[in-house]
Amino acid sequence: MDLTSLCFSSSLPKMLLLILLLSVSLFPNWVSSLGINYGQIANNLPTPDAVVPLVKSIGASRVKLYDADPRVLKAFANTGVEFIVGLGNEYLAKMRDPKQAQDWVKINVQCHLPATKISCIAVGNEVLTFNDSVLSSNLLPAMENVHTALVNLNLDKQVVVTTAHNLGILENSYPPSSGSFRKDLTQRLTCILDFHSKTGSPFLINAYPYFAYKSNPKQVPIDFVLFESDSGITDALSGLHYGNMFHAQIDAVHSAMEKLGYKKVCLQISETGWPSKGDADEAGATLDNAKKYNANLLKLISEKKGTPMRPNLNLNIYVFALFNENMKPGPSSERNFGLFKPDGTPAYNLGFNATSLVGSNTTTSSGGVAGISPESGFSPPGSSSNGYLSISSDTERLLVQGTLSFWCKLVSPIIAFLLY
């Protein structure tokens, strides 16, 4: 039954209808374009079937996996949620064999289409900054063979192939207009960018202002990384103004791409976030900062604006991550990037109308964050984690007051009619 038919149903109590209208009206509309990373390095997460309503309740329309977990892909069949599936670093060598690449696509992608909307395969994750020459040499051939498999199966028009990088691929990042890739990675990145240009797939970056702040908290202003700077910075070379580090990081990558001649390749953000908890030596890893980073990030997503260098670009941002993952190795921050606790309750309040998953069955770890298999037992230096934004309590209070005022004006005629 849709809302229109409910409005004219004499069997529905008027006060119940009033509550329904208010709940629909007050639900945050700024999450409609939200992308979320769904990592599973944990032994206490709800089953994928239980995760579906949680993802839907926060308005996320896009999900990124670090593997191609069939339980997840089957659970999300016919939901309309769009997926990036991952092919782990441990499989890159095998993907040099075209037959194995085609078999992988058949088993992990083709069998789920079209019920589950898989739009992209991320081959490997942050490979070039592992400082593993064998792994790096396997990356592009694996990408090419997976793409060829899609062509052979007539799936290349609906599924593209890419890989995600962290900001460690940059040699220079400040000012943004001076951004350039590391000299030792330039040749490999040129070939990868050429692949993107030919196939129309995006260049993915994992961007974390949190790590920049953590590494140098005395020099990096916290308000600049939390999207709360009053002044920001101006790039003296380009004249462009940056109000936050997130946009500055992205445009540094844009500059590096341009220097190699790939201005038209689309750049998208496959990870960003902020941890709500960390060790004593992890500066900035607090619940308040996580809330500020992610709330402001969600606001940024809702505005659908690009960067100073690319104001009309849709960044297709994927927030890291859906859940806190209790089995992730490394410092405490690595296990506290989630927007939600394993029971489905929010790690902190971002205004999501989510339902607790207490009592749902849990699932053992599957897949891996940052392209690391759960059994690998380590996290590479500089590997992606997270970085969020939020609003201050005063700003949040004003935002809520303004929202309530707007909706009260909108629904007051309806309330008057219903109570008449």
From TrEMBL:
InterPro entries reported for this sequence: GH (IPR017853), Glyco_hydro_17 (IPR000490), Glyco_hydro_17_plant (IPR044965)
Keyword tags: Glycosidase, Hydrolase, Signal
Name this protein carries in UniProt: glucan endo-1,3-beta-D-glucosidase
GO molecular function, one term: glucan endo-1,3-beta-D-glucosidase activity
Highest taxon of source: Eukaryota
A Pfam family matched in the record: Glyco_hydro_17
Catalytic activity from the UniProt record: Hydrolysis of (1->3)-beta-D-glucosidic linkages in (1->3)-beta-D-glucans
Signal peptide boundaries: 1-33
Family of the protein in this entry: Belongs to the glycosyl hydrolase 17 family.
One GO BP annotation of this record: carbohydrate metabolic process
The species this protein was found in: Olea europaea subsp. europaea
Coiled coil ranges: none
EC number(s) from the headed UniProt entry: 3.2.1.39
Top-level class of the enzyme under EC nomenclature: hydrolase
